[in-house]
Amino acid sequence: MQAALTGVLLLALPGILGPGVSIPVQVDLPATALTMMGVAFMVTGRPVWMIVGLCVIALAASVRETAPICAALWLWSPWPLIALIVPAVIALVRRPAESSGIAEWDRITAHPIRTSLEYHAGQWRNAKVMVLPWGVCLVGLYALDWKLAIVLTVAYAQLLVATDSVRLYQHVAGPVLALAAASLIPDPWVPLAMVGQFFWLTIPERI
User: How many domains does the chain divide into?
Assistant: First the structure.
């Protein structure tokens, strides 16, 4: 029951699916799925499966370069960071385009912190952007420990160098916060929690 609820809480998060303009072509969903698969293999603690898990995380890193960092946070282990060699090699051998062809995107790439502060101006204490998208997953904060606190801190820290919000912090902290919430919700309340996570009072932010 806990596993099913965790899956529902995670998949119903607005930032996990992401903005409609990028569905189904995006890197977030496949990278997060592969990272979770790799973590599932590594958490067994068996050498063979840990190697398999590391390979899967390396594959995820070829989709989204932050995948090994997410895996290290979820497992609370430095081993997944070995997979950072994948984006490192890609960065060495590829030749990036001089321009994206869109002036605003080029400005964001050239000045990530400045543009982040511009895009998030007036949003830092906006609950609709920063808190409410979590829905029922907020229950997980009741059992907040220092590990979960660090994961959430890293997840939200991305907003200092990127213009998006919900999509970023939920792909980093979503799996662990969903699990934390599911572990606290009693079985009789599971159906209500699932319904509460799927239906929103207002249209949530997804980007």
Answer: 1
The answer to whether position 206 is within a domain reads no
Report, as an integer, the average pLDDT of 182-203.
92
Asked whether residue 69 is domain-assigned, the answer is yes
Q: Tell me what pLDDT residue 69 has.
A: 97
Nearest in space to 38 (alpha carbons), one of 59, 9, 17: 59
Q: Residue 188: what are its φ and ψ, rounded to 5°?
A: -65, -20
Residue 203 lies in a domain: no
Question: What confidence score (pLDDT) does residue 101 get?
Answer: 75
Q: Could you tell me how many helices (H) and strands (E) the chain has, helices first?
A: 12, 0
Count of Cβ atoms closer than 10 Å to residue 207 Cβ: 17
Computed on alpha carbons and rounded to an integer, the radius of gyration of the chain in Å comes to 18
Q: Examine residue 205 and state whether it is found in any structural domain, yes or no.
A: no
pLDDT at 96: 75
**Residue 63, H or E segment:** helix 47-63
Peptide bond before residue 30 is cis, with ω within 30 degrees of 0: no
Q: Rounded to an integer, what distance in angstroms lies between the CA atom of residue 107 and that of residue 97?
A: 14
Question: For the whole model, what pTM was predicted?
Answer: 0.93
